[in-house]
Amino acid sequence: MAEVKTLREQMARIATEARSKLSEITDATDEARAAEIEREFDAAMAEHDRLGALVERHEKIEGIEARAKEVDLSKRPVPANAEGRGVDAGKAIAYREAFYELIRNGGVDGLDTEVRNVLRGGVQNVEARIQTAGTNSAGGYTVPVELANFIDQAMAAYGPMYNQDICTTLNTSSGSTFNIPTVNDTASVAVAHTEGTALTDDGGSDVTFGQAQLGAYAFDTEWIKWSYELAQDSIFNMEPILGNLLGERLGRMANSKLTTGSGSSDVQGIVTGSSLGKTAASATAITADEIIDLLHSVDPAYRSSPKAAFMLNDSTLAAIRKLKDGDGNYLWQMGNYQVGVPGSILGYRYYVNQAMASLTTGQKVMIFGDFSKFYVRKVGAPVVTVVRERFWPDLGIAGLIRFDGVLANTAAIKHLITA
Question: What is the C-alpha to C-alpha distance for residues 379 and 246, in angstroms, rounded to an integer?
Fold first, then answer.
């Protein structure tokens, strides 16, 4: 935990220094210097994000180590004289004696300082001609090639849309059509009443109901097969390795569809279902005022929701980190990494979703609103299955997922689109 704490402190310091550096840009700053400061800022933010990824990895490792402590390691043989057996005081000790002491002790822990020093010094005045591992004919053929007992897996963030804590999640056991009744009476008001006058009864004030519909679209990973021989000979268990990879494939597909799905015989993505909140003046940039306009394009009833938030991709977030409002305050706030408070934009939480578009012509690069109004329907749980009989003697594995998404009221979430 101490290392994680140190990393978080470094993140906080980098964010503070980067903000201070960006504050050097004023109306009087020439373009070359401003560009240089922005490059330094971007480099600092890249380091900040790298440390954030390290924090996540350390926390995951600490969790694994905590579970590993349940394994009883007390069975390692400990010699009776574990506190270290050296030689009588005043006597010199030979390397051979020190080596035997190391063997008897089962390791260097507990050895006297004198014994350790002799071991570090090694054997003196010995024949230098030896059989070597570096030359095959001199012994190299006898040295086995070692394989690491872990696999380095490439990583790429794929977004939060399947996370049940962000949107409203509906779990169903079957995939039959699921209807959500809706009503929008926000444009209707009461009218003035005149004493003695009968109330109007022409049906013009009747309430109009509607419904949003959720289906169950299925997606699969296709089969991955591996041989019987590989299953026997590999030091890795292929089933959990491939199972984890296929699970991530399903997650990437779910996030992509729930973000930008067309909604036409397809999952409706949250960006696709959103309505226009603000059009930027530029095709490749957005301003602080435009983000404020997007925020206020959403009705205060939705802005007050505990699930009101922004969503954008990481490159757009990098651009927003440099923006200030009319009072010179940064729109992006770094939060408090010491206590786990996330960063915010204009006081609202934000989600980084790499499935969203970047700052290019005519793209919906940012959304804001009440994410609880986006409904994600999950049919059961994602399934990853290993098949042995079908491909015998080889094996196969594949994954399947069924889900849908719909924004019941388009006024709840609005987007900012570039020119």
Answer: 18
Contact 418, 359 (CB under 8 A): yes
Alpha carbons 154 and 165: distance in angstroms, whole number: 26
Inter-residue contact 349 to 310 (CB < 8 Å): yes
Q: What pLDDT was estimated at residue 64?
A: 64
Decide: pTM greater than 0.70. Answer: no
Tell me, what's the pLDDT at 324? 83
Cβ partners under 8 Å of residue 209, min gap 6: 181, 182, 183
227-243 confidence digits (pLDDT tens): 999 988 888 888 889 99
Q: Rounded mean pLDDT of 190-212?
A: 89
